[in-house]
Amino acid sequence: MLKYSNHMAFKDLREYIEFMKKKGKLIEVDDEVSVDLEIAEITRKATYAHLPPLLFKRVKNYENWKIVSNIFYSIESLYEIFGTNKLESISEGFLSNLSNMPITFFDKIKSLREILGLGKVMPKAKSPSFKEEKNLDLTKIPAIKTWPKDAGRYLTFSITITKDPETDVHNLSVYRVQILNEKEAIIHWQAFKRGALTAKKYLEKGISKIPIAVVTGVDPAIAFTAASPVPHGIDKYMFAGILRGEGIDVAELDNQLLVPSHSEVVLTGYVDLNDMRLEGPFGDHMGYYTPADYYPVFKLERVYIREDPIFHVTSVGKPPLEDAWIGKAVERIFLPFAKMLVPELIDMNLPEYGLFTGIGIFSIKKYYPGQAKRVMMALWGTGQLSLLKIIIVVDQDIDVHDINQVIYAIAANVDPKRDVWVIENALTDSLDPSVPFPPLGSKLGIDATRKFKEEMGKEWPEEVRSDEVVAKKADQILNKIIKRYQTS
């Protein structure tokens, strides 16, 4: 049976807020603030300053509402949420147990859930903490405006929940949602996102109205999972349970969707694929306004809230903001999955200034010529990594998190004609402002590994190395010099 983290999972957003308050790491803002630009501006400045979460207690024109932001304020925030500073250990434990199971053993059992101990991390039915509120509509929810030229107010960290019509697998994803009026909003799901792919399955069945729920204010581990590139086919509720070490409490709605039982706000209705409207512009994580484009409209049917609700928002813009730290945690947690798909992979770095899908640096154990390009092709065929615009591959002795070491490897090991690879008409991030015809653009691969004879036509030159005896004596003398210098 699998062993999971001993970290106590948070039941809901409120338990997390109380936890941070007891640690002295919650900033309670008593000044009255507006959802129109002010909350977003304060949040961005707080994230840049590495301040902990903010709880806005007086929101102009929205009495009885509180707003929380900056939950993912640094990589430290993810250590607090998951109870470990070695995030890859969460998925390593799961995968090691999975890979050690013999196939013949699988053939003999009736329930994979039982043999893997997944019962503990599967969602569990629990009565909801929220109640229906007939007097609420979309305009009475404290959605925020992030940048001056945004098309309007947006839900910025709400979770859109859909269910695969063929497998019943639930998907939880963070899409920006533009409020139009009391009953309508636009869901910004890009063509390759799980929500849009689920919608296509409904369309193939002749269904154009997709049942969805949009929830706000959940345990941060659930919010993180929703923002993560969990492989297609894996139920995000189960994956969140693996990260938390225990299953999520869920409640079933009238439209047969499961939502977290302790959500602060739940909006239910359907996305009408026959009603496409211009969404945007919106200032996104690239630091530019995304031009307006057509996306489907969400039609609100019911609103549920908790008493004295707490609304979760984020503010995006140039890095490093909250999405950068989510990206760094994704890098660590999903590294074991990437190693399973690319066995020679040693480590990876998705730099916070690389915009998550902009630049990826990967170190490999190199065994044969042409291996770096093979790794690039494998990575470009893997989930969210397929969106990477630039991939740099280095040898295993290069620390991918030390940019200077990476620059050295590029400068010393790369012949541009031989080692730089440009691929045209490939899938890219639709939000990339440099792409003329999204979602198709070009990609760049840089092979910064040392080359085999077959790759460059001659032997790679020998690296300089110190004489060990001389180096040991030099260290002894130098240590004496340093001590004398420090005490003088």
UniProtKB/TrEMBL annotation:
Using the record's annotation, list all stretches that form the 3-octaprenyl-4-hydroxybenzoate carboxy-lyase-like Rift-related domain.
Answer: 130-319
Q: Which GO terms describe its cellular component?
A: cytoplasm
Which Gene3D superfamilies did the record assign? Answer: UbiD C-terminal domain-like
InterPro entries referenced in this protein's UniProt entry, alphabetically:
UbiD (IPR002830), UbiD-like_C (IPR049381), UbiD-like_N (IPR049383), UbiD_Rift_dom (IPR048304)
Q: Specify the domain of life of the species encoding this protein.
A: Archaea
Start and end residues of each 3-octaprenyl-4-hydroxybenzoate carboxy-lyase-like N-terminal domain: 17-91
Q: Which residues form a coiled coil?
A: none
Query: What are the residue boundaries of the 3-octaprenyl-4-hydroxybenzoate carboxy-lyase-like C-terminal domain, all occurrences included?
Result: 325-448
**SUPFAM superfamilies this protein is in?**
FMN-binding split barrel, UbiD C-terminal domain-like
Molecular function (GO) terms for this protein are: carboxy-lyase activity
Q: Belongs to which family?
A: Belongs to the UbiD family.
- For this entry, the protein name equals UbiD family decarboxylase
Native source species? Saccharolobus solfataricus (strain ATCC 35092 / DSM 1617 / JCM 11322 / P2)
The upper taxonomy is: Archaea, Thermoproteota, Thermoprotei, Sulfolobales, Sulfolobaceae
